[in-house]
Amino acid sequence: MRRILLTIGLSLIWTARAQAQTKVIVSSDVEVSAITQAEIARIYLGKKTFWDSGARIQPSLLDEKSPLTESFLEENLKKTVRQFRAYWKRHLFSGQGTAPKTFASSKLVADFVAASPGAIGIVDAGYTDDRVKFIELQP
Amino acid sequence: MRWTLVAILAATVMASARPLRAQYTSKLTINGYSGFEFEKQLDEEGNGDPNGSFDADLFDLVLNFQVTDAIRVSTDLTWEHGAATEDDFGNVAVEYAFVEYAFSDMLKVRVGKMFIPFGIYNEIHTAKPAFLSVKEPASTNKAERIVDDAFRFYPRWGAGIAVQGDGLIGDRGFSYDLFLSNGDQSETNPFEEDNNGAKAVTGRFRFEPTEALEVGTSFYHDQPDSDGVGSLTSSGLELRYQARAWKLWAELDFGWLDPEEADEILQVGWYLQPSYEFDNGLTPYFRLERVDPSTDVANDHGYDVIVGVNYEVSGGFMIKFENNYFKGASESSLAGFPGAGYNEIKAAVVLGF
Fold it and tell me: Chain B residues with CB-CB distance to A under 8 A?
């Protein structure tokens, strides 16, 4: 029993750690203050492309070489970087839509989000920027 | 004169030096893919390529233009087999070109030329970086490549009006497609004119009961009114399952062909494709395919057994190698070959960008 509790405890700590590595930002016109893991998965898989306001969602994240992207995808989309890439190749080439924009740094993600109505981005948890809105990611 | 040139040059440079924001507001996204293939039949007799041929298979440009939040234009333009129109070699084609109006994620309307939304592979069959094997499964997509008597369950493209959408049932995702098109025809351009009053109808519904599993069903009906075919009705089941590095794709299709002057034919095609993805990008795969061109005729079925490996060298750049073992039953078109079958190796280098 103690071993089971320990395993559950460690899993929760690991999950919290992975979540804590990234933060979600949106452009100032987006009227949300929190988003669920399920919603963010649907956004980054191109299944939810509109905010409730009717504005188009423009997703962005750090490029696939970033360990933050790796942990974000595994934690929220349950996909490896390669699986995410393969998913979007099928989606893109069959005419379903275009993949989220990727950038080399949190600053560049924030530049994009700040300049793009309806944009959402994933940045390093330590990143701060007054031009964008930080929102809560809920389980 | 010199100052005029300098002024023109400066104006050109200034005009092209757009502010940083411009790159974010660009509404055009350009992607594409290319593929190079090699095929060689290993046995002396068979339906494969006895010489071993290089094939400059394709180069495609995929363009998406987000006109407004609701309106998108999407197209895939292809140049196949080293297209050289002067010599009538290869193929230049519009794979799809449509305008989409999105009322919401649940309701998007498209008009134009599109892939028929049936099963897993038809909408990605030209995009070789989007799947593991060198070719799409013949049993469900080009059944006549396994046994001669087989027919296709549906045409590859159609022109018409489609509605589609993504949504949730409870907390599980689903998607649907419904497409009304001119249907298949051989004597008139099906993307311009219908040669009969009956429209082809395609439908597909997909559901994700768990995060790892997606199941779906497709339907196609047409009254082609050509080549002596009264009607073609097909239905299909699809499954995609992923458990960590293991992946399984499978499809089962039924096709009812109703010739005008003969009895109805039921054709059945299916495949199972398990694969395992290693961390280094190497993915061995296996695919067992079977097509039975007529369930009323005994022993006319054929198999394609594929063992292959896909190596993703880096993002979107893949090398593929596989052996196809075609094997037919005693009454199939493969029965005349020694051992009633043959082997063919296929290789490809593909890039998606």
Answer: 20-21, 24-25, 29, 31, 33, 60, 62, 64, 66, 69-70, 72, 74, 76, 96, 98, 102, 104-105, 114-115, 123-124, 126-127, 129-131, 166, 171, 173, 175, 211-212, 242, 277, 281, 312, 315-316, 352
